[in-house]
Amino acid sequence: MDEAINEKLEELAMLIIANSGAARSAAFEALEQAKKGNSESADKLLKSAGESLQEAHEAHRCLLQMDAAGQVPQMSVLLCHAQDHLMGSALAQDLIQEMITLHQALKPPAQGQAQDRGI
Question: pLDDT tens for residues 5-17?
Fold first, then answer.
């Protein structure tokens, strides 16, 4: 395999892994903040998770374009690992967003507020 192509594939794999990991970490921290009642902090962390996941998706899109162009002769363990990270992080973010929404909907209203949970 061409050395430049190999380096590009490794770079893309590392971008996917790093950004997916950052997204997953931010999403889990958002969940912790939501459980503590820090909605504003949770929202900021979810936004950060989304931005990191978008970066990972952009690197993955580039990888798919290279593959479609025939520039990826075989998948390496590193590329499989990167895609696994991306899938796991995307799923975690989606589920955590839903968990936070449910947590907020089921949270008892503050003293003196009307009780409308919307579910």
Answer: 989 999 999 999 9
- The residues carrying an active-site annotation are 81
Instruction: Report how far residue 61's alpha carbon sits from residue 66's, in angstroms, rounded to the nearest whole number.
Output: 9
Q: How many Å apart are CA 105 and CA 100, to the nearest integer?
A: 8
What is the distance of C-alpha 59 from the center of its chain? 13
CB-count exposure of residue 93 (10 Å: 0-12, 13-18, 19+) = buried
Residue pLDDT, tens place only, 39-57: 999 999 999 999 999 999 9
Q: How many residues does the chain have?
A: 119
Look up the pTM and report it: 0.84
8 A C-beta contact, residue 38 and residue 107: no
Query: What does the block give as tokens for 5?
Result: 């192509």
C-alpha 80, offset from chain centre: 17
Token pair 């893309």 in the structure block, residue: 12
Question: 16 with 83: CB under 8 angstroms?
Answer: yes
Q: At residue 108, what are phi and psi to the nearest 5 degrees?
A: -60, 145
